[in-house]
């Protein structure tokens, strides 16, 4: 059976991406990153989602991006509330997806699989530069130049981005079709101590928009 490494944050998009890979018949190795994010509730969600969606293995890797700061998700900077940010928001974490994909690439090469899934989206999203199709294409090209398996022609790395051109409503509908456990996922950037979403950050507003436009209930 074909296998794949799937990046899993614990949010709706990454859970849908994992479920989609499973629906295609992949044995999935779920990879979550503790990068020093303040909203660590998402890591607990990732553990639950990986188990429910029957990942072969769920690996949690620690990378202290909070040492660098520069983001409201890792530094002592307020998370913007009350409206979708214009431009690249302060919740952007410097080089986050490059770090994540590099770790996924290392595990994929060790496993002997060329397939990596990531739930990036370039339609209804917060404007992060490392979610765009041209970025993914550039990383894929680099991956095939940078790995032993790629240079020797044993593997041709493929970065799968099944959600990249979907609206948030389309993602919600796809998740519903794939029976993604909505109630296990967590998207909020600034949850309260009990893990309840703030309802006002970009991630909460985009999630609400998606469910409303899809005509579905967010459980």
Topology:
Blueprint: E1 3-7, H1 12-23, E2 27-34, H2 41-52, E3 57-62, H3 96-111, E4 115-117, H4 133-146, H5 148-151, E5 158-160, H6 168-177, H7 202-214
Parallel strand pairs: 1-2, 1-4, 2-3, 4-5
Helix pairs in contact: 1-6, 6-7
Question: Would you write up a description of this structure?
Answer:
The protein is an alpha/beta fold. The chain has a single domain, classed as Rossmann fold, CATH 3.40.50. It is 37% helix and 11% strand. The protein contains seven helices and five strands. A five-stranded parallel β-sheet has the order 3-2-1-4-5, sandwiched between helices. α2 links the parallel β2 and β3.
Quick recap:
This protein is α/β, with parallel strands linked by helices. It has 7 helices and 5 strands.
CATH class: Alpha Beta
Rounded average pLDDT: 94
Count the domains.
Answer: 1
CATH superfamily: HUPs
Low-confidence spans: pLDDT under 50, at least 5 residues?
none
Helix content: 25-40%
CATH topology: Rossmann fold
SSE arrangement, N to C: EHEHEHEHHEHH
């Amino acid at each position: 059976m074909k296998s794949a490494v799937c990046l899993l944050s614990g949010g709706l998009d990454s859970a849908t991406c994992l479920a989609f890979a499973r629906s295609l018949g992949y044995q999935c190795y779920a990879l979550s990153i503790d990068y020093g994010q303040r909203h660590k509730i998402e890591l607990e969600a990732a553990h639950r989602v990986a188990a429910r969606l029957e990942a072969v293995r769920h690996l949690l890797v620690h990378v202290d991006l909070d040492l660098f700061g520069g983001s409201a998700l890792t530094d002592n900077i307020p998370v913007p509330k009350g409206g979708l940010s214009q431009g690249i928001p302060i919740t952007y974490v410097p080089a986050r997806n490059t770090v994540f994909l590099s770790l996924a690439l290392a595990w994929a090469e060790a496993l002997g699989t060329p397939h990596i899934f990531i739930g990036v989206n370039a339609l209804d999203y917060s404007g992060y530069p490392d979610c765009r199709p041209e970025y993914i294409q550039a990383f894929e090209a680099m991956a095939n130049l940078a790995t032993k398996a790629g240079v020797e022609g044993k593997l041709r790395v493929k970065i799968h981005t099944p959600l990249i051109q979907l609206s948030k409503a389309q993602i919600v509908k796809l998740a519903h079709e794939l029976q993604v456990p909505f109630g296990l996922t967590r998207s909020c950037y600034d949850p309260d101590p009990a893990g309840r979403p703030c309802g006002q950050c970009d991630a909460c507003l985009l999630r609400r928009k998606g469910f409303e436009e899809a005509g579905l209930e967010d459980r």
